[in-house]
Amino acid sequence: MKLKLNIRQKILVYILGPSIVVFAGIFTYTTRTSRDIAYNQAIKLTDSYAHQYALNIEGWLNQDLAITRTLAAAFLEYKQMPFEQWQRLIYPMYDRIILTTPHIDAYWDSWEMSNLDPTWDKPYGRYFYIVYKENGVYKTKAELRSLTGDPDTYGAMKKAAKEIINEPYVSALQRGQLMTTISSPLVENGKFIGLIGIDLLLTRFQNLVNGIKPYPNSYAFLLSNKGNFIAHPDSTIYQKNIAERLPELNSRFSILSNVQKGKAFSFTQTGENGQRLYYTFSPINIGNTQTPWSVGIAVPINDILYEANKNYNISIAILILGLILLIAIIFFVSSSITRPIKSITHLLQDLANGKVDSTLAIKHDVHDEIGKMALALSESIKGINDKTEFAREIGSGNLKAEVSLLSEDDHLGKSLLEMRDNLQKAKEDEEKRKAEDEKKRWTNEGLAKFGDILRQNNNNLSKLSDEIIKNLVWYLNASLGGIFVLNENRETGDKTFDLVAAFAYDRKRILNKSYQFAEGLVGACAAEKDIIMLTEIPQEYIEITSGLGGTNPNFLLLTPLVNEDEVMGVIEIASLRRFEEHEILFVKEIAKSIATTLHSVKVNSLTAELLMKSKEQAEIMAAQEEEMRQNMEELQATQEEAARKTFELEGLANALSASSLIMEYDPAGVITSINEKYSELLSISREDIINKHYSDIATEAIDKEKLDKLWQEIRSGKTKYRKVVLNIKGKEHTLVETYTPILDTQGRLYKVLKIATDITNL
Q1: Poorest-confidence range of 140-154, 160-174, 501-515, 681-695?
Q2: 356 Cβ contact partners less than 8 Å away, ≥ 6 residues apart
Q3: Does CATH number 3.30.450.20 belong to domain 660-758?
Q4: What is the phi-psi region of residue 730: left when phi exceeds 0, alpha when psi lies from -120 to 50, beta otherwise?
Q5: Is the Cβ–Cβ distance between 593 and 59 less than 8 Å?
Q6: Share of the chain above pLDDT 90, in %
Q7: DSSP 715-726
Q8: Where are the extended beta strands (E) located within 380-425?
Q9: Which of 12, 1, 196 is nearest to 108 (CA)?
Q10: pLDDT digit string, tens, across residues 10-27
């Protein structure tokens, strides 16, 4: 059925209706798209944060594990020599490594007794040596352990015979701080012979995790393989287990199971207070261990959607105000249009009724009221058509469309232009946000790219430097670059920064440059430990060349490579264009990872050098061992002769003890030994007479002064003879005594031997 609408109704239906539909469609599409993009980008950013910090922690732990692995390889080289010589050669290595790894609390090694002592026939027992830190001072300790059986923890490590990172534990020595142990096995010909391990304080991981805040109300935490919180901003959760602390969350999303499998996963959960949280977990794989850790980040969904919701609410307010204003304007315009038309209609109706009046005559003169009204109506219709087309252009996305105002009082036209300006501003804001997101994406991809480069080439300094500078120049779209690495001369103590890699226009430059601290731009950058950015470069400083000729760069960026306040090197990059702020921040961020890797390479190189020297010393010791073996054979022959003479002397001593009365004194005259025959004669047990003074047991009738004189002469080194008569239980015994002073190798008296013969019956 065809609707019968008057002019005013038609204006409202055909102009206001499409305008509302167009506005609503634009608003719905724009806000929903913006909100979805903002949410997805925020989720990716949170995941990249977790992944990046997991890589940082993984790099730290793998550096420490590399130390135990290297020590284990070095220690096995010394198995060819006696253990005492091995100790003197190998244990000083700890002192050198401690200087480069102050964050490690203790180094230790454990050796199976069955490996050290061929006569040891028990499956347990070990020799343990440790260098540990107590109150800031390094101490050492060596002892025998597990002599009655292996404890459970060590037994499990022994049975596994592989690289292990232990579950964190509380250290009593370090005042209750949380620690972990990393160990590498000592395996020889498939047999477990010991362990090399280090003890690490986990305080630096707490500090690192506390700094992870991608959003204001977000927080991060670090989980061990068994689900214990190693780091958490909430002190009540710290050191607790996630299965006990958050049982429902763990059960629902299998958090502990996924952590132990080394998976990266995420989920959204509504908390007890109704707040929705987004959780993301990134695994930390440590060496060849099978017990990965995980970094987790929790972010409130409201934080993620804050900006999107804010823009959404502003857009709704603008839409409502715009619609209200549009409706008011259309009502006003429609009224102004229909009123004169109604007057004309009344005139036409009067004319149709046959009423003829000159006053009803319509003149088409432009100055005629009817003509002006018709002209105004035509202009109004034209204006409305223009505005409709303008709205259609805006609806199709053409925010540069223009509409002409009918006059200064054209409120509808002004409102439409204001709406267009607001939409343009919203689009510009969206483009700026996308540009910022693109910069973040560029930075995160760069961090991941260089993370792979650092992991794949961390055992070859030259190749690592080439890959770093080549990819950095490419990624920054720069012209050329170079990397200077700290070179320490251990003999002279000199420190220089040597150019180890340079790159320009797809060709590696073979250059030989070296700078001292504070020398040139490279030395100044190293001394200040801060970025240097030059926009005016001397003409003779550097030149970019290609097949088309040469030109000087306009911008130069120098970045120090600092690891734990130590400058490991300097990166120099030149470009024809100005470096943007986010590119400079990216270079500064990646410099930290590069410095950490260079430090690791430096430690590995030093360890390899020490290993080479150790091999050379082992060869020298082998030659010395052969000479010692010959000496031992001669010593063994001497010992056999001495043993034969000792056996003969023992026979003489036994015969003398069986036939004579024997007593020994110390230089003070205290009895230290008596044979059984003498104690039976005196009718005193050995226990009662030992440690007695000679004056306490004298049973003969002799003057004490005379007895003391006798002993004075004995102490002077004279052998004394005397005949005494003893009254023992009413019976007299006549003894002939010989006192012989026994001197040591320095001629000092160290005991007196008395041999007596009972001549009573002779």
Answers
A1: 501-515
A2: none
A3: yes
A4: left
A5: yes
A6: 10
A7: HTT--EEEEEEE
A8: none
A9: 196
A10: 666 667 677 777 767 776
Output the 3-class SS for 320-369: HHHHHHHHHHHHHHHHHHHHHHHHHHHHHHHHHCCCCCHHHCCCCCCCCH
> Residues 273-313: pLDDT tens digits?
778 899 999 999 998 888 999 999 999 988 877 766 777 77
Model confidence pLDDT, tens digit, residues 437-492: 888 888 888 888 888 888 887 777 788 888 888 888 888 888 888 899 888 876 67
Run of H or E including 660: none
The CATH number corresponding to 81-200 among 3.40.50.300, 3.30.450.20, 2.40.50.140, 3.40.225.10 equals 3.30.450.20
Each as own residue / partner, the long-range contacts of residues 695-701 (CB below 8 Å, 24 or more positions apart, any chain) are 695/669, 697/671, 699/726, 699/727, 699/728, 700/724, 700/725, 700/726, 700/727, 701/725, 701/727
Helix (H) or strand (E) holding 526: helix 520-528
Asked if 453 contacts 460 with a C-beta cutoff of 8 angstroms, the reply is no
Distance CA 229, CA 233 (A): 10
**Are the CB atoms for 570 and 484 separated by under 8 Å?**
yes
Instruction: Name the E strands within 654-706.
Output: 661-665, 671-674
The full set of domain ranges for the chain reads 7-37+307-432, 81-200, 205-306, 457-610, 660-758
Give the largest CA-CA distance in the chain. 193
Residue 45 CA to residue 126 CA, distance in Å, equals: 50
Query: First-to-last CA distance in the chain?
Result: 165
State the Cα–Cα distance between residues 640 and 660, nearest whole angstrom: 30
Question: pLDDT at position 78, please?
Answer: 64
pTM here is: 0.43
- In CATH, which of 3.30.450.20, 3.30.70.80, 3.40.190.10, 3.30.1540.20 is domain 205-306? 3.30.450.20
Identical fold between 81-200 and 205-306: yes
Domain range 457-610, CATH class: alpha beta
